[in-house]
Amino acid sequence: MAFFTSPLSASLSARMIYVSSFFLPGILPPIPHHVLHLKSLLPKCVNIFMHTPLISMMSHELKGAAEKEVKRLEEIMRDVDVVEPNKVYDLALCYYQDAKHFLAKEMYLEAFEAAVIAWAYMDALLHMNKIRVAPETLKYFTADPN
Questions:
Q1: How far is CA 50 from the centre of its chain?
Q2: Residue environment code for 56-81, b if the CB has 16+ CB neighbours within 10 A, otherwise e
């Protein structure tokens, strides 16, 4: 049985289960219908309508979470100092742009996902000393400035 730590990981796992069950026939064993809909695993977290899993939180909560992450990311991206140009920073920048695009299109789940991925890249870059950020924004990262 799978255990999920957050609605986001549940959503991503639901997508993987759904996609693999339809696009990899013969490669993976068949997934029972009740597992495909994840009702037995996550009765209150994920529902699949057509092909898109939706987190069953209120849409305004998801909107607020997406807006909060994108706003925080904007604060970081505005003042980031790239020590050494690299492809990982380019990826983070692309995910940041995607997050803003999805937010403008009111695609809040996708905006939240893209922002979280951008955060992960930025945090990794900070750990590797490839970027510098303003001291007041270090509280958003796991990297130790010392």
A1: 21
A2: ebeeeebbebbeebbeebeebbeebe
Per-residue pLDDT tens digits for 91-129: 999 999 999 999 999 999 999 999 999 999 999 999 999
Backbone angles phi, psi at 47, to 5 degrees: -125, 145
Burial class (CB in 10 A: 0-12, 13-18, 19+), 99: buried
Domains present along the chain, CATH in parentheses? 7-55 (no CATH), 59-140 (1.20.1270.90)
User: How many CB atoms sit inside 10 A of residue 95's CB?
Assistant: 21
User: Residue 82: what are its φ and ψ, rounded to 5°?
Assistant: -85, 110
- Contact of 102 with 110, CB cutoff 8 Å: yes
Read off the pLDDT band of 23 (50, 70, 90).
very low
What the block records as the tokens of 30 is: 């068949």
User: Among 92, 124, 95, which Cα is nearest to 112's?
Assistant: 95
The span from the CA of 78 to the CA of 80, in Å, is 6
Integer CA distances (angstroms), 51 to 6, 14, 16, 36, 131, in order: 20, 10, 11, 11, 38
